[in-house]
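Course exercise 7: structure representation. Students receive a sequence record and must write out the corresponding structure in C-alpha cell form. The form below is the worked example handed out in class, using DUF3365 domain-containing protein (193 residues). Read each field label carefully; the graders check that inputs and outputs are placed in the correct fields and that the protein name is recorded exactly as given.

STUDENT ID: A-19
EXERCISE PROTEIN: DUF3365 domain-containing protein
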Amino acid sequence: MKRPVAAALTAFGLALSLPATGHAAQPSENDVEEARALAKEFMMSLKGELQAAIKEGGPINAIDVCRTAAPGIAGEISSKSGWAVGRTALKVRNPRNAPDVRERAVLMDFLARAEAGEDLMKMESATVIAENGRRYLHYMKAIPTGGVCLTCHGGELEPKLQQAILQTYPADAATGFEAGELRGAFTFVKPLE
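STUDENT ANSWER:
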C-alpha cells in the first residue's frame, strides 16, 4: 500500500518540476558532466574533513564539520562554478537542509529506485526546469550511508555524542540509518540562460 502512495507523490513532485510547456527539455551532457564532477568534489572534500575531524578529536568533532565546514565547502564550490550547491535529505539534522518540493520528489524517486535494486552510488537526477520565466538545470546525486556517516547517523550512538548532537540540533531527525541506505543527496542548480 505504501508503494503506490510513494509513486503518486513522486509523480506529482516530478510534474511540478516540468516546464510550463508540459515537457522537459533534456540537459546537455556537458552540464551533467560538470555537475557530476562538482558532486564528486563536494563528496570527497566533505568526507576528508569528516575523517580528519574524527581522527583528531573523535565523533563529536564531526558535528562541527557538518555544521560549518560543509556549508563552507558548498559555498566555495558555488563561488567558483556558478552553481547553487547544497545537501538535502528526507530526514534532516539541520532544518536549513530540508528539501523543497522538487528535491523531495527526487529523493522519493531515489528511494523507489533503491528499493528496486538500483545502485545508490550511481544514482542521479538531471532535469531542466522552468521557474519565473527562466530555465535551470537541477542535478541531484544520491548520498549512500557509508561507514563515516554511521558514526553520527547510525542507530546506536554514544550517549555523549547523542547529547552533543541534540544540543546543536534539538529537532534532529537524522539517525537510525544503516549502511547502504539513502542518506540524502547533493543538490545543484545552474541557470541556463
